[in-house]
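thought: user wants a sequence for this fold. calling inverse folding tool.
action: design(structure=
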């Protein structure tokens, strides 16, 4: 299928400019063509016959796809669909420089495949030390090394985690690629929290990447292949709800109908969204800690989930929740953005780290593995450290009555 940009979606934009203050790249550079309004102008030019030039591709590549403009737009412009369509066109029509093609080849032949990521785990301790050297070889390689988290031991999850007490629901759980291999403790905490709230948690084998990394970068064929595999896995498992603990994955899975032309047989819900709908029954134990909650873009903007994680955290006795200034501005992670656009990502990461520091919080809570790596890396770069946890880990500690 040849990718096309839908002119009807383009014409929804009235160029009012409400998106400008919310756009991270416009905030960085103040360039019209690096704003949503400017990029839509370029999309219109292409739809009317202008070929994709290197300059045009550069402006599209510079977009984080954070969807802050979607939240801000009074006209309901579906920029999320526009940028995905446009990136598919760029991937098909634009010939990249050999070095850039090589870097993208490494990223997309590695990160969507958990088994390949697993091979990196024994070398993660060395990655940070090698970052300056790798940056001289290529900025993207340096960024990849600097972002490497301190990986805990791998935790094998059973195929079924039984509900504690009375069973209230049966759900599937996505383990993911980056989340599963770099943050296995988050998946383990997610399964425990769901079980303690009365859910049988089905964790089917054969899972991999959901396709989010690929679809956000215009690699539609790879995205569709990974999406179909994910759908097959959960439809075979026979669940009607799949709970996701990574914001980017949840956002993409909720748009499978747009990607594939038909909806899966199950609904997709973020962990905080599902727990808020289910309602709490398990006892919360006190956690005397100050928490800065980070809004992952694909949770807050793409899925519209802001209140639920805050409600869950605020329901923990003695936990103090603090808001991060400029919370709507992206941290610079954005899937593979911090690997493919390392300089802009670094600037945004430094800006976010500074905002987090002003809160004086002891713990940063995020709902997306990319954000966790990005902000932790920026904090280290600034000479500071802050403990980072997923919402599931905080809830898990409170429900079990243990310290974080």
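)
observation: tool returned 404 residues.
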């Amino acid at each position: 299928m040849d990718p096309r940009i839908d002119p009807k979606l383009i014409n929804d934009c009235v160029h009012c400019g409400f998106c400008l203050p919310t756009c991270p790249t416009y905030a960085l550079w103040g360039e019209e063509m690096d704003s949503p309004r400017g990029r839509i102008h370029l999309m219109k030019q292409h739809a009317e016959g202008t070929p994709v030039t290197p300059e045009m591709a550069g402006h599209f590549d510079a977009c984080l796809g954070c969807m802050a403009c979607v939240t801000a737009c009074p006209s309901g412009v579906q920029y999320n669909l526009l940028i995905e369509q446009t990136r598919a066109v760029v991937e098909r029509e634009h010939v990249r420089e050999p070095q850039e093609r090589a870097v993208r080849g490494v990223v997309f032949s590695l990160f969507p495949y958990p088994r390949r990521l697993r091979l990196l785990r024994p070398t993660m301790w060395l990655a940070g030390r090698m970052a300056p050297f790798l940056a001289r070889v290529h900025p993207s390689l340096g960024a990849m090394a600097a972002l490497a988290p301190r990986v805990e031991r791998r935790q094998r999850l059973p195929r079924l985690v039984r509900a504690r007490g009375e069973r209230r629901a049966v759900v599937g759980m996505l383990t993911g690629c980056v989340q599963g291999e770099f943050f296995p403790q988050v998946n383990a905490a997610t399964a425990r929290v769901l079980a303690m709230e009365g859910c049988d948690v089905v964790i089917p084998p054969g899972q991999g990447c959901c396709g989010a990394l690929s679809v956000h970068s215009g690699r539609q064929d790879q995205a569709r292949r990974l999406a179909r595999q994910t759908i097959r896995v959960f439809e075979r498992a026979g669940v009607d709800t799949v709970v996701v603990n990574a914001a980017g994955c949840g956002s993409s899975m909720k748009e499978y109908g747009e990607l594939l032309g038909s909806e899966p047989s199950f609904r997709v819900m973020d962990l905080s969204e599902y727990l808020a709908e289910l309602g709490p029954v398990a006892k919360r134990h006190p956690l005397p800690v100050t928490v800065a909650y980070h809004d992952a873009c694909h949770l807050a903007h793409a899925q519209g989930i802001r209140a639920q994680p805050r409600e869950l955290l605020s329901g923990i006795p003695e936990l103090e929740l603090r808001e991060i200034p400029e919370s709507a501005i992206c941290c610079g992670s954005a899937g593979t953005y911090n690997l493919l656009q390392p300089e802009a990502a670094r600037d945004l990461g430094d800006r976010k780290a500074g905002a987090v520091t002003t809160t004086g919080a002891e713990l940063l809570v995020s709902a997306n593995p990319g954000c966790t790596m990005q902000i932790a890396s920026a904090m280290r770069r600034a000479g500071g450290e802050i403990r980072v946890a997923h919402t599931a880990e905080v809830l898990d500690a409170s429900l079990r009555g243990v310290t974080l």
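thought: summarizing for user.
answer: Here is the designed sequence. The beta strands are 160-161, 169-173, 199-202, 241-244, 267-270, 289-293, 319-323, 363-366, 387-390.
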